[in-house]
Design brief:
The chain is an alpha/beta fold and 382 residues long. The chain has two domains: 191 residues, 3-Layer(aba) Sandwich (Rossmann fold); 175 residues, Glycogen Phosphorylase B (Rossmann fold), CATH 3.40.50. Helices cover 43% and strands 16% of the residues. It contains 14 helices and 13 strands. The protein has a seven-stranded parallel β-sheet, sandwiched between helices. It has a six-stranded parallel β-sheet with strand order 10-9-8-11-12-13, sandwiched between helices. Helix 5 links the parallel strand 6 and strand 7. Helix 1 crosses helix 14 and helix 7 packs across helix 12. The longest helix has 23 residues. The relative contact order is 0.12.
Length: 382
């Protein structure tokens, strides 16, 4: 079986980048004479892979060009039996399908559910393309039961194609940090001093619900129940419609208490998680919610939302709140910071929870889908 993998995001620090890297690296360990894997990677985001896989470096390009020009050209030259697109929209819509079977990973339906959080052209293309891509794919992989249910509701015709394959967390990278110097250096890097801090990680955009976090933080300060009062640290790139969030601390007179630190490097992120007193992730919508598991793996108690995929991922290892209720969020923070027994209990439950989400399991389940799709191709050829 000749397999082509869309690795355009390999080498990036996004969730899709982690998914891409761990799938490609895992497949490279499953090499056999019956399976030959070729990775289609961007020249701008090269990563090191074992020699058991072939790597085809292609010019950096917009996803539309990548999916409808570069990928089908390589498919034609290589004669892939199966091609796996990892980025929602990266199957060739405008190219004859031929002999190659398609697997598509859909991480979320953000452009349909939160259209203002993406660029207008992406929003319109997603609406146009996603039903056609679901029809074109021979199998569809999603990250959560919640996303599978959304697809079944909105695109009922294609529901039988959809399989849930959870993402994993790399516990060799995300783990408790016993090296106090590492945490000290991260604190110094971001001007945190020795004070405790609450942490949010994710792009600054409306669905991340950071305005509610900031208002809840204001409630915490007004309550005067915490001494010392932790700072609020928000780590992530500026996304669509971020200006209101960035301006809110100043409007509320909280600028000296709240820090926006931008994108944190892969090397520093585990220490930033491990140094936090509480990790806050009250998002309004997530296809999976990888930062929840990353924080748990680092031993940090988590507060997250009771909506979309997040209860599915967090289980009983986090405090789960209504993301629209800022007082509930504020109360949850105060409760965790004043109840050391509860914080310790959640820390241990978090360690147990992350063992249920491994990249190795993700690779094994994906391989089973490949084998099923390839078997379908052979049975139809007979």
């Amino acid at each position: 079986m000749k397999i082509g993998i869309d690795c355009r995001f390999s080498g990036t620090s996004t969730g899709i980048g982690q998914y891409t890297y761990h799938l490609a690296a895992g497949l490279s360990k499953c090499f056999s004479t019956q399976m030959k894997v070729t990775l289609l990677v961007s020249q701008n985001h090269l990563a090191a892979y074992p020699s058991t896989v072939r790597v085809r470096a292609l010019p950096q390009a917009h996803r539309f060009v990548w999916a409808n020009l570069y990928a089908p050209w390589v498919m034609h030259r290589e004669g892939f039996d199966l091609y796996h697109a990892l980025d929602n929209l990266s199957l060739p819509l405008f190219w004859p399908k031929g002999q190659t079977r398609y697997v598509l990973t859909v991480h979320d339906l953000v452009p349909l559910l939160f259209p203002n959080s993406v660029k207008k052209q992406h929003r319109y293309y997603f609406r146009l393309a996603i039903p056609r891509l679901l029809k074109l794919a021979d199998a569809v992989i999603v990250d959560s039961d919640h996303t599978r249910a959304l697809i079944a509701k909105r695109f009922e015709t294609f529901a039988e194609k959809v399989s849930v394959v959870h993402l994993g967390v790399d516990t060799t990278r995300f783990r408790p940090i016993n090296d106090s110097e590492s945490i000290h250096q991260v604190r110094k890097r971001y001007g945190l001093g020795n004070s405790p801090y609450l942490l949010c990680v994710g792009n600054i955009e409306p669905r991340k619900n950071l305005s509610a976090v900031i208002h809840a933080y204001a409630d915490i300060l007004r309550s005067a129940e915490l001494d010392p009062v932790p700072r609020l640290i928000i780590a992530g790139a500026n996304g669509g419609l971020c200006n209101d969030v960035l301006a809110l601390p100043s409007r509320l007179g909280l600028s000296r208490h709240i820090g926006f630190v931008g994108t944190v490097s892969d090397e520093e992120l585990p220490s930033l998680y491990a140094g936090a007193s509480v990790f806050l992730f009250p998002s309004l919508y997530e296809g999976f919610g990888l930062p929840v598991l990353e924080a748990m793996a680092c031993g940090t108690p988590v507060i997250t939302s009771n909506v979309t995929s997040l209860p599915e991922i967090a289980g009983d290892a986090a405090v789960v709140i209504d993301p629209a209720n800022t007082r509930e969020l504020a109360h949850a923070v105060i409760r965790l910071l004043t109840n050391k027994t509860l914080a310790k209990e959640l820390q241990q439950k978090g360690f147990d929870r992350v063992t249920m989400f491994t990249w190795e399991d993700m690779v094994r389940q994906t391989l089973k889908i490949y084998e099923r799709v390839y078997g379908l191709e052979r049975s139809q050829a007979d």
